[in-house]
Amino acid sequence: MDREIILQYIEQFYEYYQVNIQPYLFADYKGQAFELFDTFHLAALGVIGFIILLIIFSRNKLSEKNKENLRDTMAAILILNEISWHLWASFYNEWTIQKMLPLHIFSILIWLSAWMLIKKSYRIYEFAYFLGIGGALQALLTPDTGIYGFPHYRFFQTFISHGFIIIAAIYMTVVEEMRPTWKSILRVFVFTNIYMAAIYGINILIDSNYLYVNAKPPTASILDMFPDWPIYLLYMEGVGLATSLLLYLPYFIKDSVVAIRLRISGKSRLDDFTS
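and the corresponding structure tokens:
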């Protein structure tokens, strides 16, 4: 293939890129804005749900090598998707320390979830289960994508990041058979409050609002239903604790049923070790 033909292909691709791809990358997107629960929103939720169901129903058919490859693939998706967001923000001059430092819970969970998948870390799993599933589910139902509707890059980036946080936590639960405990809730609650206090100080230093602990977000959110600062922080604590208890409810029921059966049979959990 000679040089002129190569240049012709490059020129054709560039023309195609300008017309069919570049408009869906612009920061000042002129296309259709995101609409809550429209066809594209529901389709994105459906794809995430399908992946979760696929993992659940195939959990007993995966070899150890399959599991390792799947974990590595999910970790790569999380990392590459997050890096692409920072590159996009930098290219369009949207990157600032007030908005783009990895200090929001989801930003941290993306990196931690990737590490959890690679190293099968239980300590990270505790946070991914309660903060990841509970928080990311709310973010998927009411995503903060603003003007970036389908098929803009930010539409896909948002649903991939939050979706795979949930998928990673569910995978570790149903495939790797990890589970939270009461102590998990306590550890997550204590550490999260310590982290929020630290972020409050950082926000003051750099004039940011990570975790929304210094003020409510400028866009509409569930926090608008609560009183003004600082009282809404207590409501945030309550919602977080209630969500964690709800996520733990299946295990509470399971453990209670097992305990009742043991009492009825006259056995204790120690019998399995002494027999």
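(Above: one complete record from the training split.) The chain has one domain: 31-274.
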